[in-house]
Amino acid sequence: MYIIPPLALTALVLLLTTTYEQRYQRYTKAVANWERIIRAATFSLAIASIIRSYYCKTVELFFRKIAVSDSHGLTKEEDELTWREQHAYGADTLSKTIMKMQGFYVKAAQIVASRPDSIPQEYADALSVFTDDNDPLPVEVIKEVIEKELLVQRGEQFDDVFEAFDEVPLGSASVAQVHHAVLTKKYGHREVAVKVQRPSIEEKLMGDVANLKQVAKVFRGADLPVDYYAVFTELEEQLKDEFDFEAEAASMERMHNILTTDEKGAQRDSPIVTPLSVPALVSKRVLVMDFLKGVPLSRASDEMKRKGIAADGVEAKMFARKLLKSLTTAFGWSILESGFFHADAHPGNIFILDDGRIGLIDFGQVKQVSSDYRKTVAKVILALDERKSDENPDDLAKIGNYASGLGIELKDDVPAHGQAAIAMWLFDGSVETFPSGYDESEVSPNSPLKAMKEFPHDLVLLARSTVLIKGLAKRFGVRWSLSQEWAPIARRVLQSKTDQIEEENSHRTRLHFKTWGKRQTERVVKNLPRPMKKRALSVVLRHQQRHDAKQHKRQSRSVK
To answer: In the predicted model, is pLDDT for residue 452 greater than 70?
Structure first.
């Protein structure tokens, strides 16, 4: 008698008791699980190779230093060169691995590269290429996704919706790819950006972030400048929503309303430009939205060179201040007034528009904090702004007390005023000397970040926003204090209802005249000949620098 082998019997039973769709789902799930294992092993082996190379280099230098002959020793310059070469090797290996694997590893590279002062320069340079334009998909695949996800259910053809569709993408990120297009007359005949989710990307990215969490957990006690385990844990939660473009369209609309309408419902000018979706052309994996004409901040230096603008010139410095002011106001309104904010801002999705305004795109990752939490942030901001000096014990105690409400807990036996130092580090980039010997640098053994037990989850993405602005200020050489800029917003948020209404009416009147005057001035300056324009900008820049110096002097004045 012929006996059917167990494996064949299992396959036969599966074939007879399941539908094609069920079998296909099981197959794709098995393939995804196997791919996750392969990707985890590949990345782990690359990390192990880099770590092994550092250990080997350390051993090599150790034996060279204890060599009998002094001639075998290294000078300080030779030692620095040796480690720069080692960092270059490690950075190149890591960059090539991420380039090959793509997925969430690209997002992780963006996060690490956004703080170049916290890692060796070689790694910052190697990872900076991952800000945008990674591994574009063929346009045929993109169109197929659009047809399947958006058009088939509507009974429409591609040409019914799009009059023109650029084959070269505007950007290609880890989750989606974006193309410029023109809608047909039926849909308004206007320029749009079309965001299309990569096929089968959700399980791949969620597997990647799980792998990265495991790697980060291993190094959690390795005295790194950033707790990447906490960062990836929070991002894992936020990433779950990034695959739903209908939710992203809703987030875009909500953010637009926050920035254009104040707490009393009155209209106001938004400090930045954010796109809105085309409501009839949104699905879970396809999002058609306003097209913002400009270049990402990651390419701004190249654009300035093309226009003949010197990096250290007046125009560049004025641009830096406008950029910082726009982002600071936008994040101040969204975080302090509503608790709802963009949680994935980086130079790849901050745009310099052709008309000079600042744009912000990609609302796949947003964060909502509670009313109590945002009010606690406001209290920290006011305590920082109202301090009499950076060393006054009463001020530091007050700041630290409010900062503890953000979930900041300190390790045992760390210097005093650690919570106040962390608050300064997060919200005031103008601080030169931190209390109790703490150091501003993340890589310093005395960094206030190393005094924390762990980074609070609610603070992770909020800190990404503040650290982004702080990093941009450093990059452009501008002294910038978020606490000083956010203080008026924080004060309004915490005021009583009656006082707030009166202040809002007065503020709205002042803002109207200030905005009108600013627009008239910008219109006049924009049309001036270039030599006169530079002189006018120089006058404005000197005025702003004097104002900043007065503010810094006020904050630095010690209690007598």
So the answer is: yes
The burial class, CB within 10 Å (0-12 / 13-18 / 19+), for 255 is buried
Pick the closest to residue 347 from 133, 119, 87 (CA basis): 133
Confidence of residue 350 (pLDDT cuts 50, 70, 90): very high
- DSSP conformation class of 271: S
CA distances from 209 to 15, 31, 234 (A): 34, 18, 10
At residue 277, φ and ψ (nearest 5 deg) are -80, 160
Q: What digits encode the pLDDT tens for the residues 509-559?
A: 454 545 545 555 555 555 556 666 566 666 656 666 665 555 555 444 443
- Segment 441-457 mean pLDDT: 82
Question: Distance from CA of residue 43 to its chain's centroid?
Answer: 23
**From CA 433, how far away is CA 96, in angstroms rounded?**
39
CB-based contact 368:480 (threshold 8 Å): no
For residue 165, the number of C-alpha atoms closer than 13 Å in the C-beta half-sphere is: 18
Give me the pLDDT at residue 523, please: 56
Long-range contacts of residues 540-549, Cβ cutoff 8 Å, at least 24 apart = 540/318, 541/314, 541/317, 541/318, 541/321, 544/321, 548/479
What span, in angstroms and rounded, lies between the C-alpha atoms of 28 and 514?
Answer: 59
The C-alpha atoms of residue 220 and residue 535 are separated, in whole angstroms, by 52
E strand residue ranges, 140-261: 162-165, 171-172, 176-183, 191-197
First to last CA, the chain: 103
